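ok, trying the design again with the full structure, not the truncated one.
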């Protein structure tokens, strides 16, 4: 990306820049700081911004400081006739300027500085894209591991994630992706627990003291695993405290309580218990009512957000829109494709559970199922859900009155 933004309050200087550099760079000019900020807010991506220092409505240091907030990846250059040390220090410290150039500046020197800044921009963007791809890849691998060690639990994770996200949106949580990833990876700690203990815990059977300690330490183990993944440090902390009660009881026993517990962990605590109670047959409202009666268990603000998220789920419109329409299919194993969502469990012909209902078929999972098909055989048919785009008219809201349960 060779787009460069020049900002100056002198139209003659901007015209000179256009004549000098229009063949080297994709150029845009802005007459003054206000036009420069508008250009950055427009959504167009600039590799470099070159700003004058002395401008009437806003000096270059303040402009570049705001430019950094709007477009943090854009590399900033300062071009000024005021070459004193104080100005240079302010430009570097407040505007995070890559280079400070004094007027008059030879065109070749300025072009060289812009080329160096563009190289820095490419490095910044490239490293971020690499990290994002690495992070996404790590998350996918971890999800595959969870689906292997606890297919039943992984199958219920989708409802847990959607509940957590709905609550987070009501609370206007900024980093929603952390809530989503935390919900999906909160079970990763089960990798350290014997399968028979996982099964006993899920079925609600009595656990020995040692087994109970294993289950209690699942968030801690998961947090330790996730803490080694770049950019998942906050996710690891959310997972660590996701089972802790608001009054500080539960695990971990480190004295943390109340609002010192990460907000994401408080959201996961409510979402997990809500979906667990719903799975026993309780309605969403009854589950909330039951949870609200437990003194010290939950953040009341999060419980209220959960109630409000239920109300928003039932609100619908009436205008025709394009949306993904779902359909249910009963298929053979050979027809199973990546992207299908399982409605029925997949089991071997001997009755062993391989994948739980609710799981989305991934390439890795499909390969695993092919192996099982060869060795043990798979029961057919398999019921799946798939989607296709269509124009539909939203129906009327359900014939019910959404009420917010009293939170005590």
């Amino acid at each position: 990306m060779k787009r460069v933004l020049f900002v100056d309050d002198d139209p003659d200087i901007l015209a000179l820049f256009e004549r000098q550099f229009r063949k080297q760079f994709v150029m845009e000019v802005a007459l003054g700081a206000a036009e420069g900020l508008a250009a950055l807010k427009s959504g167009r991506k600039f590799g470099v911004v070159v700003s004058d220092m002395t401008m009437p409505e806003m000096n270059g240091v303040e402009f570049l400081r705001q430019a950094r907030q709007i477009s943090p990846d854009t590399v900033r250059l300062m071009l000024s006739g005021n070459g004193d040390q104080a100005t240079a220090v302010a430009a570097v410290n407040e505007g995070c300027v890559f280079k400070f150039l004094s007027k008059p500046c030879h065109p070749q020197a300025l072009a060289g500085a812009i080329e160096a800044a563009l190289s820095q921009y490419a490095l910044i963007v490239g490293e971020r894209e690499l990290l994002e791809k690495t992070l996404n890849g790590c998350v996918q691998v971890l999800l595959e591991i969870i689906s292997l060690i606890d297919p039943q639990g992984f199958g219920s994770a989708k409802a847990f994630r959607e509940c957590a996200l709905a609550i987070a949106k009501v609370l206007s949580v900024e980093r929603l992706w952390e809530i989503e990833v935390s919900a999906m990876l909160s079970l990763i700690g089960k990798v350290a627990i014997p399968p028979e203990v996982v099964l006993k815990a899920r079925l609600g059977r009595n656990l020995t003291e040692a087994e109970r300690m294993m289950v209690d330490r699942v968030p801690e183990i998961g947090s330790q695993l996730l803490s080694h993944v770049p950019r998942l440090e906050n996710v690891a902390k959310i997972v660590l405290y996701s089972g802790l009660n608001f009054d500080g009881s539960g695990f971990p026993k480190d004295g943390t309580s109340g609002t010192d517990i990460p907000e994401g962990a408080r959201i996961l605590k409510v979402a997990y218990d809500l979906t667990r109670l719903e799975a026993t047959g309780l309605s969403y409202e009854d589950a909330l009512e039951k949870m609200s009666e437990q003194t010290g268990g939950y953040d009341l603000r999060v419980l209220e957000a959960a109630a409000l998220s239920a109300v928003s789920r039932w609100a619908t419109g009436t205008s025709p829109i394009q949306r993904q329409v779902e359909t249910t299919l009963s298929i053979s194993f050979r027809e199973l494709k990546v992207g299908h969502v399982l409605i029925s469990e997949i089991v071997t012909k001997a009755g062993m559970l391989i994948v739980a209902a609710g799981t989305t078929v991934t390439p890795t999972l499909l390969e695993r199922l092919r192996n099982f098909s060869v060795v043990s055989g798979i029961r057919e048919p398999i019921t799946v859900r798939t989607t296709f785009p269509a124009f539909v008219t939203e129906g009327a809201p359900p014939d019910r009155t959404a009420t917010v349960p009293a939170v005590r």
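Keeping the full-length input from now on. The first strand starts at residue 3 and ends at 8.
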